[in-house]
Amino acid sequence: MFGTLKTLIIGANARAEENLRDHYAIELIDQKIREANDSLKAAKFALASLMQRERAETRQVEMLETRVADLMTRAKEALDNDREDLAQEAAAAIAQMENELTLRRETVRRLETRILQLRQSVEAAHRRIIDLKQGAVAARAARKEQDIQKRLNRHVAKDSAFDEAEDLIARVLKRDDPFEQSQILKEIDSGLDQADVADRLAEAGFGAATKTTAADILNRIKTTD
Q1: CATH number for the domain including 88?
Q2: Would you say residue 7 lies in a domain?
């Protein structure tokens, strides 16, 4: 029992979290974009720091290379002038500087590799943030459309005027013609009290006419002339 209750509680919490995320989706998107921008800014600062260090190391390498070349020239001149002691001292300094050069050149290579990787990451993050911002614009537009549609649906659902109007139209269209109905009623009544029997016999030529017709009036006018 307790396991079932625990499962139900976990499910309810998950649904509540999903509903909360859906409700505040736009706000969450904006917050995540701000966090991504902060991360991108930190990556840019790191990249700038690496590039600054790489340039400083490169300057040190160039300076050491210049000093080594200068000392080599001076050591050769010392040997040419039988100053092997000075040439030996220069050689020791050159050896030390070349060992330092090896280390600094390796450092420059590592920094260049790291800079290339970080630059690619920064460029990719920049493109993703642009996509996120465009997606946020589309999400805001979609949310506005959804809100408008929800309000319209609620209004239409609550407004019974549409249904009432449709029902009234249907009732009017289905209603019988009152004039035609009255005529039929008269015919029925006449048939029931037999009042029209003499008229129908007269119209058939049996007996005198019960009603004056237009033909009777026309004949009367002719005989008057």
Answers
A1: 1.10.287
A2: yes
Instruction: Give the pLDDT mean for 75-86.
Output: 88
User: Is 86 within 8 Å of 56 (Cβ atoms)?
Assistant: no
For the chain, how many residues are written? 225
Place of tokens 């050149």: 105
> Mutual orientation of helices 25-80 and 84-158 as an angle, nearest 10°?
170
Interhelix angle 2-23/25-80, nearest 10 degrees: 80
Q: Residue 43 belongs to what domain range?
A: 2-159
Phi-psi region of 159 (alpha: psi -120 to 50; beta: other; left: phi over 0): beta
Q: What is the pLDDT of residue 78?
A: 87
Q: Is the separation of the CB atoms in 68 and 97 below 8 Å?
A: yes
Q: CA torsion angle for 185, 186, 192, 195 (degrees, to 10)?
A: 180
pTM: 0.55
Computed on alpha carbons and rounded to an integer, the radius of gyration of the chain in Å comes to 54
Other beta carbons within 10 angstroms of residue 111's beta carbon come to: 19
Helix (H, G, I), strand (E, B) or coil at 117: helix
